[in-house]
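Reopening this one. Same input as before:
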Amino acid sequence: MAFTDRSLPAREAILGAARTRFATDGYDRATVRAIAADAGVDPSMVMRYFGSKRQLFARTAEFDLRLPDLTEVPPEQAGRVLAAHLLDRWDGDEALQILLRTAATDDDAADRMRAIFAGQLAPQIATLTGDPDGAATRAGLVATQALGTALCRYVLRLPPVVAMTRDEIVTWIAPTLQRYLTGPP
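Same output, byte for byte:
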């Protein structure tokens, strides 16, 4: 659907309100009416511009992990570089937090999360290790650590994990990521 330049401010207000509402309430509890009210528009505009709540969520959750090229760092540093990068991404990207909250209860969001790790991380691991057959397994294991850390820090807000500095978390999880990236099975 083509939009006029006049619709851009309304669409951006809806997207901003949706990001905030999904992050605060989660996918299931967020309503189109509440998002529209937060954006200062009629609910019909949300449907007109985005089609459905699910499509609106998908637009708010579009992102790229922007992974560093792990083949350009010393192989023994890949876990540390990846841990630091992923933590920075979680800290700086509200869409990742929205997707994490929603993936626990929504199959489409869970599919999206799986696709992100498989599609963006597995190819790098295949290049890094020279083992394309094992890359998906390694990417899945990296995801367990990354998503577990993010869940505990940003969703469950476990006090010891929330209290840790970025560098402390990196120090703790980097060896595990290193083993998943380059260690023996």
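So the earlier flakiness isn't reproducible anymore. For the record, The first helix runs from residue 8 to 29.
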